[in-house]
Hints:
- By secondary structure, the chain is of the alpha+beta class.
- It is built from five helices and four strands.
- Strands 2-3-1-4 form a four-stranded antiparallel sheet, sandwiched between helices.
Amino acid sequence: MPFWKCYYHFVWATHQRQPLITLEIERVVLASINLKSAELECPILAMNGIEDHIHIAVALPPKLAAAEWVRNAKGLSAREVNAMFPNLPTHFKWQSSYGALTLGAKHIPMLVAYIQAQKEHHANNTTEPYLERVEAD
Length: 137
């Protein structure tokens, strides 16, 4: 097995930034992304979000394109939410765009702490704009 250390920070939002991610939906989203990432052999370092977007720190092997990992994570999580909650007022889906940043190993503790405190950062208006950017569709 080759040696690699490829760390990414992904952020993506619900379609039209709708505040759809309730506590129950968040559980399904996180569980399904964890499951898919484990299947793809991509360790998740941190994952959290608020009602309209999610942040994920993950290590991706060079054999897997970042866009492919995102496609899998977004796809499975949306399918699982819609299967578990068929009576939602609106069909759950993600924006087609996403933010992606790479980082070095020494920045992982800062990013993990930032992601773990997502709800507090948004409640206290202490977000870091460069870590929050997602283009609107």
